[in-house]
């Protein structure tokens, strides 16, 4: 029996057997003699070559690893019971979860089916929501930090977690986190935000679907180079999760899916009925190019422009709205702004994504996702716009709702101004 196995911490936590080892220490199966329950005990060992200042940083980080989840109450985050200083180093006492982590499951079973990955992602979003509401950013979400205990999905290892009320412990010139799962802006030296955790979630779900993260290369520098300079390769096994991955793995954090939109897309992917309907029914990507050209009609003396609509077929069938209904079944009610503005775009679903700029220039009018019920009014003489989902958006020209045109065709509209 080793010296550690003979230890009883704080006169109550008895080490029973070793569960596993990592770079910074060992995890033990233990027993709380006072409360007569099994516990997990994380023994944190300091690297031998650390200087005094680095030892202080290490100890503070260990305490933060304990404090962050201790503030959070949810089944999706590991529960911390106690922190003990014994033999000059910290030991973290937490609930014992005897279950594989996601990395081990991927290694054992290979890529997981989309419906299972969607469920895992949904539970992790709950964990992140609790953490982010408390001002805590995990900063190291990856498959090895996700435990799978039956239907329970548990986020662990808050050693790199950042709290909005805490002092940063990252030293200049030191890269923190896992390169294959870190958000591009964090790898570039920017401060981690909740959006960075959402990127890491996307990379984790990608790894679960494909068997490897999107930017993993042979070494750290090659991985970081790919992260900075390449687009994520399309996931071949994503199925209904493709919109989730595409939204989470946006390099620009401002364009990344929000927590609420990620929840919505994952829940849709988890629904067998909706997933089956989406596979069996038509999907189209709608491209709308709008040009409001200040021209003069000699015959009537009004300005006229052209609204050019093109639809690209993505799968056969009939367009379906965001909530699974036929888009043509929605009640038609003109937005109030349509009476006084030549062009109004209204979101009737959760995926109304548009890009609008002045025609022939880089002057951006609007880019992003419109929330359901939101309206955007455009009245400049020359505009170019792109709308990606006909089921989620409505286009109103001169107070009239415009048909989107037949699949694979372009349709012109006159716009008076």
From TrEMBL:
* Residues holding ATP: 42
User: What PROSITE patterns does this protein's entry cite?
Assistant: PROTEIN_KINASE_ATP, PROTEIN_KINASE_DOM, PROTEIN_KINASE_ST
Q: What InterPro entries does this protein map onto?
A: Kinase-like_dom_sf (IPR011009), Prot_kinase_dom (IPR000719), Protein_kinase_ATP_BS (IPR017441), Ser/Thr_kinase_AS (IPR008271)
E.C. no: 2.7.11.1
Which region is the signal sequence? Answer: none
Q: Which Gene3D superfamilies does its entry note?
A: Phosphorylase Kinase, domain 1 (3.30.200.20), Transferase(Phosphotransferase) domain 1 (1.10.510.10)
Q: Which domain of life is it from?
A: Bacteria
Membrane-spanning parts: 286-312
Ranges in a coiled coil: none
- Please provide the record's keywords in A-Z order: ATP-binding, Kinase, Membrane, Nucleotide-binding, Serine/threonine-protein kinase, Transferase, Transmembrane, Transmembrane helix
Annotated SMART domains: S_TKc
Q: Which GO terms describe its molecular function?
A: ATP binding; protein serine/threonine kinase activity
Per UniProt, the enzyme's principal EC class comes to transferase
Occurrences of domain Protein kinase (ranges)? 13-270
Any idea what this protein is called? non-specific serine/threonine protein kinase
User: Which organism is the protein's source?
Assistant: Thermomonospora cellulosilytica
The upper taxonomy is: Bacteria, Bacillati, Actinomycetota, Actinomycetes, Streptosporangiales
């Amino acid at each position: 029996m080793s010296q550690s196995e003979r230890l009883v911490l704080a006169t109550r936590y008895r080490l029973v057997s070793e569960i596993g080892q990592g770079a910074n220490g060992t995890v033990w199966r233990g027993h709380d003699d006072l409360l007569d329950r099994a516990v997990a005990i994380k023994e944190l060992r300091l690297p031998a070559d650390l200087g005094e200042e680095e030892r202080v940083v290490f100890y503070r980080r260990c305490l933060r690893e304990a404090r962050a989840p201790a503030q959070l109450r949810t089944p999706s985050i590991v529960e911390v019971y106690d922190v003990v200083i014994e033999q000059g180093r910290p030991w973290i006492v937490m609930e014992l979860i005897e279950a594989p982590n996601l990395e081990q499951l991927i290694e054992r079973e290979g890529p997981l089916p989309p419906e299972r990955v969607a469920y895992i992602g949904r539970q992790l979003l709950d964990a992140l929501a609790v953490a982010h509401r408390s001002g805590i950013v995990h900063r190291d979400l990856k498959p090895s930090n996700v435990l799978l205990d039956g239907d329970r999905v548990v986020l662990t290892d808050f050693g790199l977690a950042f709290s909005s009320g805490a002092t940063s412990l990252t030293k200049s010139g030191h890269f923190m986190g896992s390169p294959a799962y870190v958000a591009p802006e964090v790898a570039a030296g920017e401060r981690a935000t909740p959006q960075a955790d959402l990127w890491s979630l996307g990379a984790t779900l990608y790894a679960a679907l494909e068997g490897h993260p999107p930017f993993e290369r042979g070494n750290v520098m090659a991985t970081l180079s790919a992260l900075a300079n390449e687009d994520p390769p399309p996931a071949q096994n994503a199925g209904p999760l493709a919109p989730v991955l595409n939204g989470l793995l946006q390099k620009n954090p401002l364009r990344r899916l929000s927590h609420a939109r990620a929840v919505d897309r994952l829940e849709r992917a988890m629904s067998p009925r909706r997933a089956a309907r989406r596979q069996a029914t038509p999907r189209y990507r709608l491209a709308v190019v709008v040009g409001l050209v200040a021209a003069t009609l000699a015959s009537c003396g009004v300005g006229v422009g052209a609204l050019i609509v093109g639809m690209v077929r993505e799968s056969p069938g009939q367009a379906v709205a965001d909530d699974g209904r036929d888009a043509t079944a929605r009640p038609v009610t003109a937005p109030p702004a349509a009476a006084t503005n030549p062009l109004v775009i209204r979101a009737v679903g959760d995926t109304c994504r548009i890009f609008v700029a002045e025609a022939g220039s880089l002057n951006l009018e609007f880019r992003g996702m419109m929330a359901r019920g939101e309206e955007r009014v455009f009245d400049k003489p020359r505009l170019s716009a792109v709308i990606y989902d006909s089921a989620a958006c409505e286009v109103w020209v001169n107070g009239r709702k415009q048909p989107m045109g037949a699949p694979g065709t372009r349709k012109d509209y006159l716009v008076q101004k």
